[in-house]
Amino acid sequence: MNNLIDQVQMDKYLVEIQNYPELINKWNKRLREGQFSHYRAERYYKKYHYFFGVPAMIFAVISGSAVYLYDSFLNVASLGAIVGVCSFISSLLIGVQTFVNFSGLAEKHLSAAVKYGVLRRDVERIMVLIKSDEDLPLIKNQISLLKSQIDDIASNSPNISHRIWRKATEVMDKELNR
Prior knowledge:
The chain is mostly helical. It has one domain. It contains six helices and no strands. The protein is rod-shaped, with a radius of gyration of 26 Å. The protein starts with a helix and ends with a helix. It comes from Prosthecochloris aestuarii (strain DSM 271 / SK 413). This is SMODS and SLOG-associating 2TM effector domain-containing protein. Keywords: Membrane, Transmembrane, Transmembrane helix.
């Protein structure tokens, strides 16, 4: 029922709107912000994937190798403690990485960024239609279709932290204002 109400309101809005370029420009800006912020979130989660993964691997190699070298270092009393600490740290880092799933989050954000990019190209195509004064029903249909695609991507994309969103939009604004 909510989608029906949204569609009726959208149809009413499309009939009343006189300035299609303004609507498309607003959507293009939002899509650009979404694309930039999802790319930034992807880099953020990928960085933490390596931040936790590389030390976990190093500590796992140290503790695993120490088991084979144990006979050579029987007189070293602290070897057992060192191996235990390395094993504990490795397990802790692997547990955090598995629970948070940084690589999975990075992949989801990358997928969302790519989808936002596809929609931006659709917006550019609609802008050309508007400038070429194509028939109004075609433009209305394209805008209505675009709105449903934007809603679909927004509802299926992972959330972006406010900090990442703010930083991405600041960088984007600086690049556009050069």
